[in-house]
MMPL family transporter
Amino acid sequence: MLASLTRTCARHRALVVVWLAVLVGGVLAAPALFGRLTAAVGSVESSESVQAAEDLWQAAPSGGQVYAVADGLPADQLRPEVERVTAAIAALPGVTGVATPWTTGDPALTAEDGRAVALGVQFEPRDELAEGTVDEAVRLLRSLDAPRVLVGGGMLLDQEMNDQAAADLARAELFSLPVVLVLLVVLFGGVVAAGLPVVVALVGVAATLLALLLVSVVTDVSVYAVNIVTMLGLGLAVDYALLVVARFREERAVDPGVAGALARTMATAGRTVAFSGATVAAALAALLVFPDPFLRSIGAAGLSVVLLDLLAALTLLPALLARVGGRIAPAAPTASSGGLFARAARLAGRRPALVVLATAAVLALAGAPFLGAVFADPDARSLPASSASRQLTEIADERFPAGTDVDPVTVVAPAGTDLTGYARAVRELPGVRTVTERTVPGFTVLDVLPEGDSQGPTAMRLVDEVRALDAPATVRVTGDAAFLTDYQDALVDRMPWALLVLLGTTTVLLFLFTGSLVVPLTAIVLSTLSLGATFGALVWVFQDGNLGALVGTEALGSLSITTPVLVFAIAFGLSMDYEVFLLGRISEIWRATGDTDRALREGLARTARTVTSAGLLLVVVFAGFVAGGFSPVKQVGLGLVLAVLADITLVRMLLLPAVMTLLGRANWWAPAPLRRWHARHGITEEPAVPQPAVSAA
């Protein structure tokens, strides 16, 4: 199949034009896509908290809000200017209310030092809102004559996150692609060979943007999702193209004819790339198991991106190689006894048990901080320090009365329910600041203001404790803390099924590729160890604030709730990606020689340069996103950087060779019926001609 596909791609120049059209389409799609993004991260529509919030909104529909702080003068001096501006805002069509310290009589809207006031503007539901009303209200708020004016939050938070996502994506590409090109020139020793992976990467990013635009037609696409999926698409495109071009150079060292080298490349490395893509797709498919539309949309978009990158690597790249392959220099002979990987393999072979224990201990120690992980939904604090919405949140925390910026734990009961005794019991719970009763059509509501943050430990505990109280009627709990509690519970409930999909498909795919059941299980255990270390490092950096200056963050006190799920799925897929490429060579040599030690030594020597280079290029791509300003994307970016570095160093250089040395021939074990089945139906990579000479170092 790959042979005929390669011949077709090599013959038809129009294929390059088709991919050029995709590139142009992706560039044109970008503005439309960023205009359709939402700031929503995760929710479960069927959960108690979401259903209760929806019922409250249906009973008393309301639109979004915009907030402002006028700072730098005593409140009495600010009052005339605030009243002038808010009177103009209140007259705008679609404005349903304006809150100031003087219209509400609420002292919480005045800073504790008396030198700042907070304002809020409430709008009609978006579908009823007159066009331009929000923009005019924002303009008026910003026109306040005060030493310092901050306008943001609410409806503006989505726009700030959209703008930050677009800026981060542009910054990441401007950083990553030139560095990737320079590294590829150093690796391949020529601009032509180096340029091909970059071309495929650009096309991959364009195809990614088009895919996300199509996804946004059917479901919401988060600002968080677009950068995650684009990061993955860019990295995989470079990765796959690198593997193909590297093998093409090896094949030209055997026979310099372009057509023959291309055919052999796609029959070997092309097959491995296709299989590697299948393992990444299998990992991303696990995201489809979760009930959250956000994770499912990343899973679906991620699957699309993997398939598009594979399609580009298996069609566009052969078409380009057929035209410029003659200008790409053959690879130099590989040293079988030299190189860092080969030396590490020999060390692992001499002291395998010691290497396994020491390396596993290092990874386990690095993962220990994850035991104290705290999770939260992204909010304004996820934006850069220069963001107006973040500054509003910080000034509310630092200078306004406690609880001003805290979302209550909201208890919803049927209308007419006597909640007097129940409210008294709630008020006596530890960590409750105030309890306020109100009514909306059809419901009686208690707003329970917790100590600490909206999604802090106290608020999260209160959700469980309030739900556990005996109530005079059926009550439901909603609010930010309840959303997060229900979301965490939904993730935990579906996690076993997601792991079954991820680990089950990985085991099947690696068995098809190697004919062994031991190799897939070994790969799963080693990848889990390295990912545990990655999660521990993320807690240490983002939650605890260590080395924050290095990655542009501060102690956040928590990780984004979706970070571990996304990093696990993506990094596990990438780990299996390298596993397939490495095992393709090791199993090829083992089948030819029956010598596991030799297969390890020569397989590592042949693949070391390419695997290391591919990993480092992925690190460069992911590092571009770490440099962005949106914290959840930074977390995933750094998580993938650390996961790839751990995989290509500790796991591939030390742990894997040591474990395979200890297992010996048992690496290739499978029950006899499965061995017979694999002999007939398995997928293996067989070289079409003898491999390039291996030189002695």
In short: Residues 335 and 695 are 5 Å apart (CA to CA). The mean pLDDT is 85. The radius of gyration is 29 Å. The domain at 2-37+159-374+505-668 is CATH 1.20.1640.10 (Multidrug efflux transporter AcrB transmembrane fold).
